[in-house]
Design goal:
The protein is of the alpha/beta class. It has two domains: about 210 residues, Rossmann fold; about 60 residues, Helicase, Ruva Protein, domain 3 (Orthogonal Bundle), CATH 1.10.8.1080. A five-stranded parallel beta sheet has the order 2-1-3-4-5, with helices on both faces. Strand 4, helix 6 and strand 5 form a beta-alpha-beta unit. Helix 2 crosses helix 7, helix 8 packs parallel to helix 10 and helix 9 crosses helix 10. The chain is globular and about 65 Å long.
C-alpha cells in the first residue's frame, strides 16, 4: 500500500484544524491566505518553468505539439489549458493536446482504476502518433500517478522533451521526466484536497508554459492577442479593438482591413502599419516566421 502520509500535499494543515467551526468569512480568509503560498511556491520554480517554455516553443516551431497528461484534477487542468489555446491563439486543436486518464468522460466523472494503469497513457500517446518533436508534460499533484509515470517513460523512449509538474519534492514523475517542476504548496486547507493550492499552482504554471510558448512563435504583438479567432460576435469586436489599439486606426478602417485580410488580425496589422495589401502582408509575415515586429522590418 502506498504511504500517502509522507507527501506534503496529504499532510494536515495546523492552521485549519478547526475548519469545521469557522465562519464563512474565516474560511474565505484562511483560503486566501493559503493561496498566497501557491504563488510563492511557483516563484521558487520559475527557472524550471522558463526552461519548459523554451522547450515548448522549440517543439511548436518544429511542427510538434504540447501534450499534457494527467489524472483527476491535474488531468482536467491540462485539458482546460489545451482547449483554451485555439480561441486565444488561433491554433488548431491538434497543436495543444490534453490527455486525461479515463478519456473525455473522466473530465466530469471519475473513471475507476484509470489513473493506476501502467499501459493506458502509452496507448493513448501511440494513438495520437507521438513523435520526438512533441513535448509531453505530466501533471500529478502527488507526483506518483502511474498513468503519468508510464506516459512520461514512453515519451522519453520516443525522444520527446518531457516535463513533470508535481507539488512534492523528489516526486516519482519528477524523477522520470527530463525536467522536474515541483512547487511545494504545503498542506491543503482541506486535508488532501489538491484541487485547492496544488491545483492553483499547476494552473499558474500551465498558463505560463502555453502563453510563453505561443508568444515565442509569434502569437502576440506587443501584449495583444493578434491571432485570436473570430468565432463569435465578442471575438469579432475584440479583433477590431486589437487592430485599432495596435495601429491607431478607426473602427471602420479596422473592419475594412480585417475584411481584406479575411479576418486574420496579424495580416491586417501589417497592412495598416505598412500601407501594403493583404498578399504582401502575408508574404512578409511568412518570411518573418509569423512575428509582426520582424515582418515590419522588411518595409
Amino acid at each position: 500500500m502506498i504511504d500517502l502520509s509522507i507527501l506534503t500535499t496529504e499532510a494536515r494543515n495546523p492552521d485549519t484544524m478547526n475548519l469545521d467551526e469557522m465562519t464563512p468569512l474565516e474560511i474565505a480568509s484562511i483560503m486566501n491566505q493559503e493561496d498566497e503560498n501557491a504563488v510563492k511556491a511557483v516563484k521558487e520554480v520559475l527557472p524550471q518553468v522558463g526552461t519548459a517554455i523554451e522547450w515548448a516553443t522549440e517543439s511548436l516551431r518544429e511542427g510538434g505539439r504540447i501534450i499534457y497528461i494527467g489524472a483527476g484534477t491535474s488531468g482536467r487542468l491540462g485539458v482546460l489549458d489545451a482547449v483554451e489555446c485555439p480561441p486565444t491563439f488561433g491554433v488548431s486543436r491538434e497543436m495543444v493536446v490534453g490527455l486525461i486518464a479515463g478519456g473525455e468522460k473522466a473530465f466530469v466523472e471519475a473513471v475507476e482504476g484509470a489513473e493506476d494503469s501502467e499501459t493506458l497513457c502509452e496507448e493513448e500517446l501511440r494513438a495520437i502518433n507521438l513523435t520526438s518533436k512533441d513535448i509531453v508534460i505530466g501533471l500529478a499533484a502527488s507526483g506518483r500517478t502511474p498513468y503519468v509515470i508510464y506516459g512520461l517513460d514512453y515519451a522519453n523512449q520516443a525522444g520527446c522533451h518531457t516535463v513533470a509538474i508535481a507539488c512534492n519534492k523528489g516526486s516519482d514523475i519528477g524523477k522520470t521526466a527530463k525536467l522536474a517542476i515541483e512547487p511545494v504548496t504545503g498542506p491543503e486547507v482541506l486535508t488532501g484536497s489538491t484541487r485547492l493550492k496544488a491545483g492553483t499552482a499547476q494552473k499558474m504554471i500551465l498558463n505560463m508554459i502555453s502563453t510563453g510558448s505561443m508568444v515565442g512563435i509569434g502569437k502576440a504583438y506587443e501584449n495583444l492577442m493578434v491571432d485570436v479567432k473570430q468565432s463569435n460576435e465578442k471575438l469579432v469586436v475584440r479583433s477590431q479593438n486589437i487592430l485599432m489599439t495596435a495601429t491607431g486606426c478607426s473602427r471602420e478602417e479596422a473592419k475594412e482591413a480585417l475584411n481584406q485580410a479575411e479576418g486574420h488580425v496579424k495580416t491586417a496589422v501589417i497592412m495598416v502599419l505598412s500601407g501594403c495589401g493583404p498578399d504582401e502582408a502575408r508574404q512578409k509575415l511568412s518570411q518573418a516566421g509569423g512575428k509582426i515586429r520582424e515582418a515590419l522590418k522588411f518595409f
